[in-house]
Write a structure and sequence with these properties.
Layout lengths: L3 H7 L7 H13 L3 E5 L2 E6 L2 E8 L4 E5 L10 E3 L10 E5 L2 H20 L8 H10 L10
Antiparallel strand pairs: 1-2, 2-3, 3-4, 4-6, 5-6
């Protein structure tokens, strides 16, 4: 169940996106994640280990996940712009078609944390270097 703060943040989504963000939130909570709101995102962890961060935007839902940056899903983008050391990739959802594959990726991220196999921990200087290298344009998909 969403808290008042989570409901308020998810409520900023339009009528197409709100069901997507709500479905992902419910899936993460059902998987045993603890959720909390930090101004612009909802964070999710299992036993104190970060699993995901959900960002509602005006035209999309973005969710960073505890998956390896080498993961092969075409939905995943590089999430360096979000600066999570342990969440290197994200999904950007625009409609219902994105939700089915996204749900499978969310489930996989939760299982990686439960199994203790998620070993991504980017060093602090990774983000500074990335910013210097990416001064030419917007963040691009990882493929």
């Amino acid at each position: 169940m969403a808290t008042i703060d989570e409901t308020k943040l998810l409520g900023t989504l339009n009528k197409v996106l709100k069901p997507l963000g709500t479905a992902l939130h419910k899936q993460l909570v059902k998987a045993g994640c603890t959720s909390y709101v930090k101004t612009i995102y909802i964070g999710y962890d299992l036993n104190g280990i970060m699993v995901a961060a959900l960002y509602p935007h005006i035209d999309r839902v973005e969710i960073a996940l505890a998956l390896p940056d080498s993961h092969e899903s075409g939905l995943l983008i590089d999430a360096t712009h979000l600066t999570w050391k342990t969440l290197p990739v994200a999904i950007v959802l625009h409609d219902d078609e994105d939700l089915a594959e996204s749900s499978a990726l969310v489930e996989e991220a939760c299982q990686r944390i439960k199994d203790g196999v998620h070993d991504v921990e980017r060093p602090n200087d990774y983000f500074m270097k990335s910013r210097r290298e990416d001064t030419r344009g917007a963040h691009r998909p990882k493929r």
